[in-house]
Amino acid sequence: MTKKRIAAIRDFIDTAEKSLKNAKKLLKEILEEENINLSAELDLDTKGLSKYDSGDSKIIEGVFTGEEMLGVDKNKYPVPVNYASKSKLVQGDKMKLTIDGSGKMLYKQIKQIEREIKVGLLTQDKGRYQVISDGVSYDVLTAAVTHFKADIGDTVSVLIPAGKEATFWAIEAVMPKE
C-alpha cells in the first residue's frame, strides 16, 4: 500500500514539474513574440550607483542583465560576451563602464551579487544555448559555451543569483565525463 502511495506522489510531482516547465516555456515564447522584455530588469537595482565625468572620460555604473549593462541612466550598454563569459558575470552584478574621449569602452565588475551554484545539462533550443536544472531551463551565453569548450549534453555547473529569479545563468565549469 505504501509503495502505491509513494508512486502516486511521484507521479503528481512529475506532472507538476512538467506543467511548470511548459508554462514557463509558453510565457517565454509569448514575451518573445510580443517583443516584451521582462528579463530580470524588474529586480535589477541601480540604487546607490552613479554617473560622473573623470577628465575626458564618462563613468557610468550599472547592473549586468545577462547580456548587457543597465546603466544608472536607464540606458543599456553592450557588454562584450567574451568578458562576460570569462568573468562569469551573473545577472545583478554591479559594473562600471568607462567611456574615454575617443569612445573606447572599458568595463569592470565592481560588486558581485550573492551567488549559488547549480548543476545542469547543456542543451540548445531555437539556436540558443540553455542549461536545464531542476526541470527549468535558462539561457547561457554562446561565448561561455565556446570558452569552456562545452558540448550539448555536457553536465555543467552554473552560477545564479542567490534567491532571485534570473533569465541567464553563467557557466562556472564543465563537469568531467565519467
Brief overview, please?
This protein is an alpha+beta fold and 178 residues long.
Question: What do these coordinates show?
Answer:
With 178 residues, this protein is an alpha+beta fold. It folds into three domains: 1-36; 40-111, no CATH class; 115-174, OB fold (Dihydrolipoamide Acetyltransferase, E2P). It is 25% helix and 37% strand. It contains three helices and eleven strands; from the N terminus they run αββββαβββββαββ. It has helices spanning 2-33, 81-86, 142-147, and strands spanning 51-54, 57-64, 68-71, 76-78, 94-99, 105-111, 115-125, 128-133, 136-139, 155-161, 170-174. The strands form two sheets. Strands 1, 2, 3, 4, 5 and 6 form a six-stranded antiparallel β-sheet that branches. Strands 9-8-7-10-11 form a five-stranded antiparallel β-sheet. A hairpin with a 4-residue loop joins strand 3 and strand 4 (76-78). The two termini are 38 Å apart. The model has no long low-confidence stretch (mean pLDDT 86).
Structural class given helices, strands, pairing?
Answer: alpha+beta
Distance between the termini: 38 Å
Q: What does the average pLDDT come to? A: 86
Total count of helical runs of at least 4 residues: 3
Poorly predicted segments: none
Largest sheet at a glance? 6 strands, antiparallel
Number of separate strands: 11
- Rg (C-alpha, Å): 19 Å
Helix content: 10-25%
**What global shape is seen?**
elongated
* Estimated share of beta-strand residues: 35-45%
Tell me the series of helices and strands, N- to C-terminal: HEEEEHEEEEEHEE
Please tell me the total number of domains: 3
